[in-house]
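Q: Please design a sequence for this.
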């Protein structure tokens, strides 16, 4: 994938995520203004289930050729992700520990 397209895609995902977070917080405030915490929890669960159903029904136009999910594949994916995070933190000099 071209780096320009990847950067633009990541930017759009970031904007969509922020817009969703702000909208969700605003709706939570509205729900809590007129309802209770239990109402907010039930609505949150229902919305999460609704989103999961919508996403589960999205079909790809092209087969990505992904192998079936297995424990070995999942372990490699988690290890690779953690390795990338460690690389990001070490590249910036951030250790997550205080210097004092």
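A: Design:
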């Amino acid at each position: 994938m071209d780096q320009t397209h990847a950067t633009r895609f990541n930017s759009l995902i970031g904007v969509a995520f922020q817009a969703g977070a702000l909208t969700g917080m605003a709706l939570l405030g509205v729900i809590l203004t007129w309802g209770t915490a239990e109402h907010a929890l039930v609505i949150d669960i229902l919305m999460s289930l609704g989103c999961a159903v919508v996403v589960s029904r999205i079909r790809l136009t092209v087969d990505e050729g992904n192998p079936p999910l297995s424990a070995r594949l999942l372990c490699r994916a988690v290890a690779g992700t953690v390795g990338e995070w460690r690389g990001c933190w070490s590249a910036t000099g951030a250790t997550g520990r205080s210097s004092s």
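Q: Thanks. Anything notable?
A: The radius of gyration is 20 Å. The first helix runs from residue 3 to 34.
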